[in-house]
Amino acid sequence: MKLPDGPRSPALLQTLSIVAQPIDFLESCAQKYGDTFTLRVLGVNSPPVVFFSHPDAVQAIFTTLADSLELGKVTHVFRPLVGEQSLIMQEGPRHGRSRQLLMPALHREQLYGQGQQICHLARQQIALWQPGQRLNMREEMSEISLQVILQVVFGMVPGERYDRLRQLLSQLLVAITSPLYSTQFFFPPLQQNLGEWSPWGKFLRQQQQIDGLIYAEIAERKLQDLTGRSDVLSVLMSARDSQGDAMGDRELRDQLMTLLLLGHETTASGLAWAFYWLHRDLGILDRLLQEMQTLGENPDPTQLSQLPYLTAACKEALRVYPIALISQPRKVRQSVCLEGYEFQPGTILIPCIYLAHRRAETYTEPEQFQPDRFLAQKFSPSEFFPFGGGSRSCVGMALSLFEMKLILATILAHYQFETSENCPVYPTRRGITFVPPDNFRLKLMGRRSLALVSSA
């Protein structure tokens, strides 16, 4: 079987390269081999892994060839965290059922009712800031994002259970981004409970405590009238599949953990990149502020989220440095023909988000932050797909983008910042995501007086 060209170096060296310097390695492969290339990065006897960035190939993987592909075991690392009944662990009809139940709760129109709450949570966090502070924007955005998940997704209200769950989830989210801690999720033999002092034993105890709080919240919610409630958990508890069946407690827990783990870091990091780019080009920032002022005082969050330039700026931040470099890998189940090659069962096909977003044929001057490109042109789901694509696209993408726009606008309306970064900032790995480095800071200069600032 002839495969697309790729590096001839040993599989171990390729694996080390993509783990240690993934962006540099992928860029060098694309420069040498083009839009399609083959890597050996899953072990010596592993199947070939083929990367794609041409829109036609990406579209085929997402749509026309989808029935011949499967997820396989590529998401096994998430199983201990999200559980067996998580959307991302499902295939075929079970995946379709889970997605059918989840989508209405996360639809754009459903989220509009949560806009005021998201803006309020952003204002609460920034009220703690002091002029002169040098703020780690990724950490600050992570805190707001976690509060949004607890109140908008979980539907919880501040109190003893809320504070305890917030503390435990914060600890877990920090831990799983540690290379040493996260290694145990990739290698099942390390998943040995040797007591609380062992890494796996500590994780299991932490997970048990988190689960106890989530199940207590579900049990309490069952005793309440959910009519009119728009938080995601309440909507999911009211949802029924085509057979009239509701989600069980375990499935509700697994879907909540999925939304937490896939939505928290991505939203926070996307926001951090947006703040970085806007303060690298003050002309773009000024244009955004002028657009925001057109809504007048105390605008409706839905109107705010529909501002064209604000939307374009957020999308461009997700394009230049997508939080995940690749979409979910697919495994060939039945032989498929793509890009002039026939791929046999077992071959892994990967739509590469980073390289697709950097194609000069699709995006002129792809390294530049230019929100205008999203006003001048509508890019297809195979050209711009920061949340993946096809039936495996991130179910929370509407929430993430909605949240990004409201938090960004709320903060920019209240405060002025200054960056001391004279040199470009490059992504650094944080778990499975790629984020601004910890040394990226913005200095809080003082309050901004925009007409849209509310006294609330």
Description:
The protein has 19 helices and twelve strands. It is an alpha+beta fold. The model has no long low-confidence stretch (mean pLDDT 90). 48% of the residues lie in helices and 9% in strands. Strands 1-2-8-5-3 form a five-stranded mixed beta sheet, sandwiched between helices. It is globular, with a radius of gyration of 22 Å. A hairpin with a 2-residue loop joins strand 10 (428-430) and strand 11. The chain has one domain: Cytochrome p450 (Orthogonal Bundle), CATH 1.10.630.10.
| Multimer state | single chain
Annotation field: number of helices:
19
Query: Which superfamily, in CATH terms, is the homologous superfamily?
Result: Cytochrome P450
Shape: globular
Give the radius of gyration. Answer: 22 Å
What is the fold-level CATH name, i.e. the topology?
Cytochrome p450
Strand order in space, largest sheet:
1-2-8-5-3
Do you know the CATH architecture?
Answer: Orthogonal Bundle
Model regions low in confidence, pLDDT < 50 over at least 5 residues: none
For the termini, the CA-CA separation is 65 Å
Biggest β-sheet, characterized? 5 strands, mixed
Number of strands: 12
Number of domains: 1
Which range best describes the helical content: under 10%, 10-25%, 25-40%, 40-55%, 55-70% or over 70%? 40-55%
What does the average pLDDT come to? 90
Query: In the CATH hierarchy, what is the class?
Result: Mainly Alpha
Which strand-content bin applies to the residues?
Answer: 5-15%
Q: Specify the structural class.
A: alpha+beta
